Amino acid sequence: MVVKRIENVPGRGLIVKVDPPREPSIPLEHVPCDLVLAIDVSGSMIADAPVPTKPGEEVESTGLSVLDLVKHAARTIVETLNENDRLGIVTFSSASTVLQKLLPMTAENKVKTDEKIESMIPKDATNLWHGIRDGLKLFNDDDSTDMPKRIPALMVLTDGCPNHMCPVQGYVPKLRGMGELAAIINTFGFGYNLRSGLLKSIAEVSGGSYAFIPDAGMVGTVFVHAVANLQSTFAQKALLRLTYPSNIVEPSPQADQAPAIKLPTDHPLGPDYSELTINLHNLQYGQSRDIFLEYSSLESTRPITASLTYQRLNSTPETLPLSILDPSGPAPSPGYTPAEIAYHISRSKLVSFLLSLTPRSTHDEERTPQIPLPDEIQSRLTDLITFLPCNSDPSSLLNKSLLQDLTGQISLAIQKPEYYSRWGVHYLPSLADAHFKQACNSFKDPGPLMYGSCSPLFIQCRDRLDRAFDDLPPPRPSNNTWIHGMGLKRTGEGGYTWMDFRMSSYNSRDNPCFAGCVRVLLAAGEDIREAEEEKGKRPRRMARSIKISKLRAGMQVQTPRGPRRVVAVLKTAVRKQEMCLVGKKGLLVTPWHPVALPTTGTPSSSSSSTSWTFPREIARRKVRYTGSIYSVLLERDGDSAAHALFVGGVWGVTLGHGLVSRNTGAGSSQGDVRAHPFFGDYTAVVRALERLHRNSGGLVLGGGVKRDERTGLAGKKESRRVARRAKAAAVAPRPVDKLRPIVRCPTVRYNRRTRLGRGFTLAELKAAGIPKLYAPTIGIAVDARRQNLSEEGLAANVERLKAYKARLIVFPRKQKVKSTDTPKDQQSGETTQSIRAAFGVEQAVAPGFTEIKKSDLPKAVDGGAYRALRKARSDARLVGVRQKRADDKAAAEKEKAK
């Protein structure tokens, strides 16, 4: 039973208390819930999530990405649900995807859900609106009526700003236009690149909560508390209605409520009364909701009433009888101690102060943080701390927790502009939300930790979720990380294990190169003079090995298959590049450049794929290197073993070795670690090197490696080929492109050349007998803006359309055959995936027309046609002037001759 009470605070205001039961009458593991997880899978979610450390300690990376931790938190939620709960999953990037509709969390469905959670991968943009829309739609589309009702909630996690297909009118007006939402929306913002005001506004309009997750260490605790609050819900859709004299109570500005309205003149209480509705949304077991309303003038003797409506699971809405505060009657027994009254007044003022830093916009109702903060904020905070009522009893745990928040993180957040703009602007709205809803949102802040401390069910749910988060097997890192230069990764048990990097060879941002100081072995008999670096010695000497920085095209180096000629040397400048020290001579090489240790001190005569490995797996230690690194391309050879050189006492693979697929390598079942779709393709490497600049010394100068955004691998050849195949398979048996017209290139100089145009004109379609609306449905591009300027071009494209139509096969979509469908006896024959391959760019000359040969064209006018035309126009314009000038000159000479 809910206890509702109004208590007068003389001279200050009144406090309305809504107190749900401490715990359920029947023991429960938790309250059944319907949860939908809307998870951001934009590209930024692949960012590293390092282990939080103490100030001054080195940040330790485990290879876990932000998305890895979010998936682990999602699995934690799944682990603590049972068959009475349901879970749905929506992911959003540039578009949203429903991974799973609401399913009961039976043992079988939990396995399926874990698989779908694991399948999430980072993609591209952030389409937050579609994620919210499709998440809410899962509740609206739910047609299961035989299941008991549950507490619905949409949990949205994002790490950035929405940048794709945002509602024009704004998120809040768009959500309000949807009417009563099917679930509250809890928003979670990870990191520092957030529109926290928007996330707070979305949570407010739906009755949910907003939480800020600054780093990886807060993911678990924030999710744990959010779900524990849902699992300890007593009732939902709670509405508190207050009726009071208009000149007495001023609603606190932090309350998320509709504006107070004046009662009509025929109301029994009279027109000078107002009614205020406060939406409390979810009420939790064992946690009261205390609303402080401040007097705007002197107290009155007229009564104040309050009523509460709420809905419990499996029941209709309930309304508690009116509570009446009559100042003229006998004083009721106090329900609050003086310390509690001071606490709730102070809490109300604290929330008002925090929300004043993010006022609502009048345009789209979105909270917009004040950046930079006004100059008077520091003095306002000082006055708030000094004059808060909680200072009257600082020994109270409640009052002490508020003061700790104020003098701790709140003061720090606005102490310096850089603190506020980086994390304070996101953290303070989250703290305000926790204090206003009186809900614990993490283990971190002293103030919110007071909430739920008297609720056995909340504590039970929180502890169970916390244990599940810690006890679940650690997630598999998607960003494999090398620790302490030993080729190790950290495990969930606190130890280390050897990392398996063979799953994605070369999958790194590093360049595959050697440091310029290492020495490379030349072929036997190669006569090379090397400049002496140290002064005071002979300027040149003979050497069989030279620094790789002095290796040039045309020289011969030793390979496992004998001498081979150097075709090109690539030089790339780097700064603080991670490098590995390998072998006894200390070869300095990038971590993902495959090497092989020789069995003896001299170069071996063979090279087996089983001996090749990555430097980071056998490195003595890692270092940071600034300078130039070098890669080598040898002459083409069908034997991959001939594409290696002996450098720094170790065999190192060179570019273009011929292994482009891991299945092409011999040796272990995992394939050859040298295999790479770009670095192994000799033709692709040569083509890429040809586009780079060469200096006067013959070195090819590179600026790094351009990588595929989707796979992270160097070069895009393979990913583009895969994309083309996927597109062809998706549209088969249709071609992947459209039929386009043949057009002449612009300007007289180039109009004898032809190219593909944007689309056919309406006149061309009409002449070919193809309706303009039907053409796009059969793979014909249409451009209504283009006009035909020649009969030849029109006739040529009409013939092109007729030839296409003759080869076209249109399958009937339904059993009833249309007139435009191809007869069944003709629905066979050779097909093509590319229209351009079948209808190429040929000379656009239709039958009946001939094109003048270039040799038959009139000879060009001396000086050019433009000059000739300009002279003709000038002569016609100036003929009178010139004639008069000539006549005057003749008259002058005649006069002079007299």
In short:
This protein is of the alpha+beta class.
Explain what this protein looks like in three dimensions.
By secondary structure, the chain is α+β, with helices and mostly antiparallel strands. It has six domains: 3-21 and 238-324, no CATH class; 33-53 and 62-232 and 455-477, 3-Layer(aba) Sandwich (Rossmann fold), CATH 3.40.50; 338-437, no CATH class; 495-532 and 540-718, Beta Complex (Endonuclease - Pi-scei, Chain A, domain 1); 742-838, no CATH class; 858-898. 27% of the residues lie in helices and 22% in strands. The strands form nine sheets. Strands 18, 23, 24, 25, 28, 31 and 32 form a seven-stranded mixed beta sheet that branches. α1 (66-80) runs antiparallel to α2 (107-118) and α7 (338-356) crosses α10. The chain is extended and about 125 Å long. Mean pLDDT is 78; it is low at 53-59, 252-256, 481-510, 527-543, 600-610, 664-670 and 708-712.
